[in-house]
């Protein structure tokens, strides 16, 4: 997902949507959880980040783990 071995899908998503729309500041709460290198602000910071893709295949929204989902 992040670092030099990031999958091309995530490289593409992070290029299109560099940061979550609901949290443009934080990357992670505790730096000890960052285990990849290099670290960039557009990295996916948590496994619950969401990318919304439109019917045309283009990413149009990215949400952080803090975004409340419908349950």
From TrEMBL:
One MF term in GO for this entry? Answer: glutathione peroxidase activity
PROSITE patterns referenced in this protein's UniProt entry, alphabetically: GLUTATHIONE_PEROXID_3
Q: What is its main location?
A: secreted
Where is this gene product found?
A: Secreted
**One annotated GO biological process:** response to oxidative stress
This protein's record includes keyword Oxidoreductase: yes
Q: Which UniProt keywords apply?
A: Oxidoreductase, Peroxidase, Secreted, Signal
Q: Which GO terms describe its cellular component?
A: extracellular region
What family, per the record?
A: Belongs to the glutathione peroxidase family.
- Under which name does UniProt file this protein? Glutathione peroxidase 1a
The record lists the lineage as:
Eukaryota, Metazoa, Chordata, Craniata, Vertebrata
Q: Which gene encodes it?
A: GPX1a
């Amino acid at each position: 997902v992040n670092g030099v071995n990031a999958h091309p899908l995530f490289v593409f998503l992070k290029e299109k949507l560099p940061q979550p729309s609901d949290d443009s500041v934080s990357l992670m709460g505790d730096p000890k959880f960052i285990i990849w290198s290099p670290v960039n602000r557009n990295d996916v910071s948590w496994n619950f980040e969401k990318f919304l893709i439109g019917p045309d295949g283009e990413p149009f929204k990215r949400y952080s783990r803090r975004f409340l989902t419908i349950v």
